[in-house]
Amino acid sequence: MATQLDTQPQLKLRPAARVMNLVRLGSLHASRLSFSRSLVRQMAREDWTVTTVRDELDEHGHGVMIYRLQTPHHSYHGVIFSQHLEPEHRSDRVIAEAWDVTFALVEGAVEDSLLAQMAANVPLQEAGRQHPRLLVLSRANKSLRNFDHFVEALASGQQPDPAWLTRVGYLYRTTAVYGNGKFGIADYARLQKNPDFNRPFSAQMFAVYLLRHFSIQQVEHLARSRSPAHAVGLAPQLQRYLGIGNSTGLGMAPFLINHPQLIQQWVCCRERALAWARGQLPTEASRLELMTLLRRAHQHFVETLTEDAEQTRRNAATVESIEAVIHWLEQTTAGPCLWDNLLDWADDHCSLEAQELINTLLIELYPDLIDAVEDELGCEEILELQPEMRAAALKQLIESKFAWALDYDPKNPDHQYWFWYRSVEKEEPRLGVRAEEPGAEKELPLAIGPRIHRTYQLLDAFLDRSPRGSVVEFLMAHPGQKECVRRIQTMGATPYGEIQANLWHRDMKPMHLLRTKLSFFGASRFDPKSDRWVRVTLFQGAPLFCELFSDHGTDKARLKALDDWSFPVEPDLKPS
Amino acid sequence: MKVSFNELQGMGRKAFIGIGFEEGDAIDAAEMVAWMEAHGLGGVAALKKGLDYLLTEDPARTPTLVYQDADFTVLDAHNHSILGNASLALELGYARARARGLSITKIRHCHNRVLVIGYLSRLARRGMNVTAFWRNSHEPLIEQVVGFKAGHLVPEICVYSLEDIPDDTEKNDGITLIMANHVDLLPSLRSDYALTNLMRQTEEDLEQQRGRALVEGLEVDDQLWRTLKTLADRLLVEASEASRSGAGAGKSDND
Question: pLDDT tier at B186 (50, 70, 90 boundaries)?
């Protein structure tokens, strides 16, 4: 069904060469179309309610918690297993075998038999066989320093120092959030007709959001257990400022390459939203609103801390750029070309992260139409062959839509420096140096650029022999090219089909791939631990369950206020 | 054991690559098996039956053209499984039908023929009417006809046995495909002919089966799953200190 955005005449979309540049993609921020934002809006709009149906935590906070989620359409249960974990076993990596908490989101009821099956398998994660009614399977580890500080403060009747959450914005950090059939759980196809969770990763986002709720309940429970007479609850401002961490490594990279149609949808929805926002008539009110958003984002980035030198430099550049943007906007009155002029000026004067931040905030100004595209973030994924196409037309398609792939030089060692593979250690994805490490013969076919280059070379030779040949005739001669050809044919018909980078290149930064996906999830506080390993925070600043439910129905002003939680800043707990 | 559709598809893809399939063929083969199983058509059983043969085949040996004109193509699959790169033979028939309105493709000397249904679904999705015909055995003589209507993702299937076996029948290990751009080719049984209807599955039956499979999961033989896992593990690289650092993680995750 066409949305209002589709009916806008001649949206000026940014060119793919600019948008799909890996360094630019690696500078994206969470936006109002990010999955966590979208989920919170849906929960508020539809008055989702969560109740605790089983609370069996002991004085150490270990045991089972079960929550019931009721939406207008269905009921679900979140089941959390909390256990003691020796510090030496606390690992963020996929090769870990035990975690502080393991949890799952279940469709429907949790009968005793299912709970027993889950208790035997959910804590094992990948090593267990999971039930097909589980929609999400996940685990998380504590941020010990934050956790201990929070329990200690609350037990002594004090509020924790908000600065602790500014340094590390959570009590728990997830290390994997599985959906779509992994280890026996439900296939995503089962959710496609379910209005609660039919958007990409929405069930996973809900599971993470529920863990945030649990983490608050658990620290309050521990504080009460330790000091029943003096313990206090966590202040609402701190509950809001508390997010959930996520630790991500190279495992995220194959998804981006193996789901090009989904990435195209995500990027295209965002770009259409930006083009539409850019085409709106700026007013004095919208100019002032953008400045308000910029000031909050400025404070967010001033406060953001990371030990990573490159990210520290990028954050500083963002802060500096935002100050310049605010100054520019203060000097400029609202005219018809304000947004175009601003973005042109930012191209020349702002860092990449700041340019994408301005785009993100510009989208915030026009929620009514832009939010309509969130239903288009998913798609059916199938790469289709067009065997009847002329081989010459395929060659032209590569030249016109994949010119970036033809930059690959097979004779240049830097162009094939890396190779991607899976290790025998729990199939963890890794990067190796081709000239130095064994295993290149088993590499994952993630470098699409060099593959398209190879197809192009073979096509060139085929066309010398058979100038009027068809694609299927080319493939009969070169059957190994089938997957690449149908990818070219399918993605060539889309504006933002491929990440335009050679993933073998020595200068390629895997961090950019991770950030691309995480930004669509809604992650903030990017805290790289190496060039291929990053910690982020989700849902920091998001409203709480108790705020989402309302007897007042869909009050537009209330929903707008609840949705305004991007780029959160440290709360001031001092009495005014 | 119970597995999800996505698990069966993913494990199959890795196992087929482990056997030596090209990536595209491995993706297609895994999808054919999982698609068949999800629709209650015995994809896993067919794979189990054919896997030992598959392991002895040369995955690089493609079907060869025996005869072709503008409408009619005959290929020899060299006694290989249809799971290999036979999909290109089907694509050739598709391209001919697009150009000429109708095409006939015969693939001779192939096994695991029932799994072809999983790929025909792809062709029907692209707007092609497709019918496939083959004989399963000789005593009794069983014929199977599968028909997809253009744009429909599931077929109608007829399986029947013939009471009177023609004198000149001989072993048939081939498959015949008819594709038409503009007319339905759905199978329907002649009521005045002496045959026994063994199975008739409608689109609705198959859709319901898929719905059940998504709720309950797919049953896979434990031994077959272990075999697939062993094949898939051929793609994994041994761990070393260099490879552990290649993951890029820090040394301590306590904070």
Answer: confident
